[in-house]
Amino acid sequence: MRVELPGGGVEILATSLLDAEACPAAGFAEVCHGRWGIEEAIKLVKHRLNIEQFSGELPGSVRQDFHAKLLTASLAWALAHSARETLPPAKAARYQPNLAYVLARLRLRLFVWLLNRASPDDVLAILTLAGKTLELKRPGRSAKRPKSRPNPKPRRQYK
Q1: What pTM does this model have?
Q2: Hey, where are the domains in the chain?
Q3: Across 103-109, average pLDDT
Q4: What DSSP string runs through 9-60?
């Protein structure tokens, strides 16, 4: 399906859905745009938390690591949301807490919090930090993506 972009370009979307009545093509651009937040959440969990790296090989240790990383991400989202709620309305309209920064700081403290029970002051310190490390909201942002260049040093194939 071809979608006309606001800048005059054309984007081609592909799907395996074949029923045109149940899934009309006109709504695909909106659905794809709506997935952006989900894609960013997956990127955060996959890359910032190294969700594919585990401390052990047994199924129990893999499950434990996976759930611990999801708990960390959920707490970071909750802290960022709480910090956003404390912002003055004018500032909240333009800025949001930097989730990657909140996550990085939380990862340093969470293990100690779980062992020693986090004090309200510890949690308040993270919330205050999240309220100070803001990033500009950029709705409808679009930028040309750089064309990929071939790697000058190709990787060796290991056998």
Answers
A1: 0.65
A2: 58-136
A3: 86
A4: -EEE---S---TTTS-GGGHHHHHHHTHHHHHHHHIIIIIS-TT--S-SSHH
